[in-house]
Every structure is written in structure tokens, then in C-alpha cells.
Amino acid sequence: xxxxxxxxxxxxxxxxxxxxxxxxxxxxxxxxxxxxxxxxxxxxxxxxxxxxxxxxxxxxxxxxxxxxxxxxxxxxxxxxxxxxxxxxxxxxxxxxxxxxxxxxxxxxxxxxxxxxxxxxxxxxxxxxxxxxxxxxxxxxxxxxxxxxxxxxxxxxxxxxxxxxxxxxxxxxxxxxxxxxxxxxxxxxxxxxxxxxxxxxxxxxxxxxx
Length: 209
Hints:
Blueprint: H1 6-12, H2 23-41, E1 52-58, E2 62-64, E3 80-85, E4 103-106, E5 111-114, E6 124-132, H3 152-169, H4 196-203
Antiparallel strand pairs: 1-6, 2-5, 3-6, 4-5
């Protein structure tokens, strides 16, 4: 997934829209930057089209998923396809809870709140199972129902990081490069140190609570 548009990076580099000779190289840089950002955040932000299952400890009113934003799906779950509680860990035999009467979903923060007010998730270790989908798509990706495009601040951070990478290379953009993804021919993650603006944006996307 590329957080920024290829056309925006080309414009920033003074490359004509009609000149496609360097598109593969530039796309590879943007894809690598997404991987670097995810590594810094410690979580994936690219949309995952398959279900992810987490088992979490209960006892509090809120449970925080490892990945966010919650994406896809339709009402009332909006990307959360199943939530169950089981004291013995036998989730197959447990009855799924129903939103919004039994829990509320904060998609942006990846938080599920037990409902009604003052309720708590079943106390214990790994007593709550959540099945969900998460992540953003890129601005050049094919739209997916109820999955948002990555926020503009992340796109701007990716463009700034790409510009810094290209500048550090101090060489003309090659006319033909076949990137192999993260760690491939375009760049190694070690080639990146986050520019100040990008780091500030990413720090704002970390969970501090």
C-alpha cells in the first residue's frame, strides 16, 4: 500500500505526468516507506481484507485492539464481525455479543466499550475474543466499501520521507528498476531515518493510553 499518490510524488520531483519511465521506481519507494512507517509504529496500517482474531484480557470497561482503525463491514459491526466472552476460553460454544446494545465500537481508535454504561468485560485472562478487519487503503488503491483512504497527514509524511530519501541518494532516478517490495532492490529499510515532520505525524498515531 502506498500512503501517497504517485502523481503527487512525481509533481514534487518535477516529473511530468506523462513521463512513466520512473513510475516503478517511485512506487517502490512509496511502498518501502509504508513498511518503514509500519515498523516505527509497531503495527500494520495497510488494510487487511481477511479477518484477524484477537483474544484479550477482560475486567475493564474498554478493550484496546492491537491494530486500528477498524475497517470494512456493515452496520452494526462496522468491521467487527464477532465478539464473544468465555471464562474457560471455549469461544466456539459462546454466544456472540451484539452491538450497540452490548458493546460500542470506536473504529478510529480500535477500542470496544462494554455496554450499557458501567458494564465491564468478563474478568480474566483472554476471556474476550474479537474478530475484525482493520487498516487504510492508499489513495491510488481500488475503493473498498467502508474502508477509508489513509489520512492526508500520513500522505504528506510519506511524500516528505520520499523526497528526503531521493535527495540522500544524490543520483538521477533510474529509468528502469524492478522493486521487490520491502528489503528489495529499491531500498533497504536501513536507508531510512525518519525526517522530523514524518516522525511527528507518526508519533501522533501511536497509542499513548
